Amino acid sequence: MTAQRLMDYKLVRQCAPTLAARKVGSLFCMEKAPAEHEPLCAILARWNRELNPSGIFVRIVAERCGRSFVYVYRRNVLSQLFNKTEIRQFLGVYGYQHFDEETLIAKLTHRIAKCHCFPHEIGLFLGYPLEDVKGFIANGGQNCKSTGYWKVYGDVAESEKKFECFRKCFSVMSSLFKRGYSLPMLAVASTKNCSIRQPERNAA
């Protein structure tokens, strides 16, 4: 793979469920690139050019020890999620007062900067159920019913369905990418119930 394709593959491997519209957002870490490589700002700009038409946005929410934490999210899904009363009430406890996209992410970024670790509400930005986020906080991360892509304190059966869906996303998206599919093609390569179709090769 070219250097550019390798960077794109990192995005696919870390964010497949978000690309496939099965998850509101994903977070992953990128090391500072050597001087001869494409700068991170250029990589993110390119990703946004390619993915914004599909409603997917990419931005840095934290920088620590030479590493950048990249948040990849679906704008419309984020807006719908944080329009829910119970979500807003929960976030209000942590100082969130405005719920437009820019203010939400700016507040999250500010809280990450103030914490030694990531604030627990980040789970909501990644699509974790509110019940599981609350359960994690109340139990200090202990006593969960099940563990997968997050610790489950609520509906185990429903969470297991999501975990299986995510596993399919990772497998299928990685396979398609290796066969030459581009990020814009993968961003629309999904249907209901995680039955991911293979997009046309001439798709935009």
For the largest beta sheet, what order do the strands appear in spatially?
Answer: 1-3-2
The shape, in one word, is: globular
Write down the oligomeric state: single chain
Task: Determine Rg (CA atoms, Å).
Answer: 17 Å
The unreliable regions are 189-200
Total strands: the figure is: 5
β-sheet strand percentage: 5-15%
Please estimate the helix content: 40-55%
The SS-based structural class is alpha+beta
Please give the domain count: 1
**Helix/strand order, N-terminal first:** HEHEEHHHHHEEHH
* Arithmetic mean pLDDT: 90
Straight-line N-to-C gap: 21 Å
Structure annotation, total helices:
9
Helix-strand blueprint:
Elements: H1 3-19, E1 25-31, H2 40-51, E2 56-64, E3 67-74, H3 75-81, H4 85-92, H5 101-114, H6 122-125, H7 130-139, E4 146-147, E5 151-152, H8 156-178, H9 183-186
Antiparallel strand pairs: 1-3, 2-3, 4-5
Describe the 3D structure.
With 204 residues, the chain is an alpha+beta fold. It contains 9 helices and 5 strands; from the N terminus they run H-E-H-E-E-H-H-H-H-H-E-E-H-H. It has one domain (3-185). The protein has helices at 3-19, 40-51, 75-81, 85-92, 101-114, 122-125, 130-139, 156-178, 183-186; strands spanning 25-31, 56-64, 67-74, 146-147, 151-152. A hairpin with a 3-residue loop joins strand 4 (146-147) and strand 5 (151-152). Helix 1 (3-19) runs antiparallel to helix 8.
Quick description:
The protein has helices at about 5-20, 40-50, 75-80, 85-90, 100-115, 120-125, 130-140, 155-180, 185; strands spanning about 25-30, 55-65, 65-75, 145, 150.
